[in-house]
Design brief:
Blueprint lengths: L3 E7 L2 E6 L4 E6 L13 H24 L7 E8 L7 E10 L5 H11 L3 H5 L5 E8 L6
Parallel strand pairs: 5-6
Antiparallel strand pairs: 1-2, 2-3, 4-5
Length: 140
């Protein structure tokens, strides 16, 4: 069980602590929702959780396969749904793996990533698009 402590600091900001490690981050409401957008918003952290979950599960599978996927980068984008309740409508992720990996191992790594528990926990109305780019460096 993981414990996370949140303290509302006012001005639409929260301090969040991962209790076991003591690591802290701040959140802020986005500019389009009365905030200053100076820190991750709660929905930004949702997309961050999804992207890091994919990277972590690929890393676990890569370790099993004795592959190096260090330097893998994930570009993600969040689009809020229009109308109705404020919620995430779409998430896109471009996963750039800058290594030569056999097609068989590519399939294994992609299958591992798609078992991400964050992805499995998100509402099915959120459209999620994922593209894998093998042996390609993302343009910055």
């Amino acid at each position: 069980m993981t414990k996370i402590a949140v303290e509302y600091r006012g001005d639409l900001r929260c301090e969040v602590e991962h209790v076991d490690s003591g690591t802290k981050i701040m959140t802020d409401a986005p500019v389009d929702n009365h905030g200053k957008g100076e820190f991750f918003s709660p929905t930004d952290l949702c997309v961050t959780a999804l992207a890091t979950c994919y990277a972590t599960l690929m890393g676990i599978q890569a370790n099993i396969l004795k592959l190096d996927i260090s330097g893998t980068k994930i570009d993600s984008e969040k689009v809020m749904a229009q109308g109705g309740l404020r919620r995430i409508g779409k998430i896109t992720m471009a996963i750039h793996i800058p290594h030569d990996v056999s097609e068989d191992n590519q399939r294994r790594l992609e299958a591992a990533a798609k078992k991400c528990p964050v992805h499995q926990s998100l509402h099915p109305d959120i459209e999620i698009e994922v593209q894998f780019y093998w042996n390609k460096v993302c343009s910055e």
